[in-house]
Amino acid sequence: MVEELEFLLIKPDGVRRGLVGEIIRRLEAKGLRITRLKMLQLTRECAEKLYDVHRGKEFYEKLVEFMTSGPVVAVLVEGDGAVEVVRTMIGPTDGRRAPPGTIRGDFSTSILENVVHAADSEERARYEAEIAFDPGCDAYDYDL
Questions:
Q1: Nearest Cα to Cα of residue 23 among 66, 69, 73, 67
Q2: How confident is the model at residue 109 (pLDDT cuts 50, 70, 90)?
Q3: Which one of 18, 72, 83, 88 is least enclosed by Cβ atoms within 10 Å?
């Protein structure tokens, strides 16, 4: 296999439910290397860019609203065949149909709140990582 980069986003439901550590544990246990990690609150503009391939679809607005509803965790991983490995690990989009043992199969019961997002190609992973790791995409107010 070929060394690849893959981008994974732990969605607001995954963060809210305390699944960040378990998801990262699974990635590392599989032998993938985490090269970047960041918790952020997506701005609407950046959520729209991340999901630009779905613009115009009936679920698009609801998806953007959900993705900006709470913090997310952006994860960039590297490894042999990382795109295929991660997409296999997360399972199908519909958590109701995802097999046990996959992240969505173990933790999700819907299409919208399905715990994680992963890019479908290395090219797309690089595009989505550029968005998520751009400081301008974080709406969170860090003043303590």
A1: 73
A2: confident
A3: 18
CB atoms within 10 A of CB 115: 26
Task: Give the chain's length.
Answer: 144
- pLDDT tens column, 9-27: 999 999 999 999 999 999 9
Please, what are the domains in the chain? 3-81+120-137 (3.30.70.141)
> Is 54 tagged catalytic?
no
Cα separation, 108 vs 106, in Å, equals 6
Q: Using one digit for the tens of pLDDT, what is the confidence trace for 72-90?
A: 999 999 999 999 999 999 9
Q: Give me the sheet containing 3-10, strands edge to edge.
A: 33-40, 72-80, 3-10, 116-118
Pairing outcome for strands 3-10 and 33-40? unpaired
- Residue 124, number of CB atoms within 10 A of its CB: 15
Indicate which residue of 32, 117, 119, 129 is catalytic. 117
Residues paired with residue 4 on neighbouring β-strands, in sequence order: 79
* pLDDT score of 76: 98
Residue 1: pLDDT band with limits 50, 70, 90: low
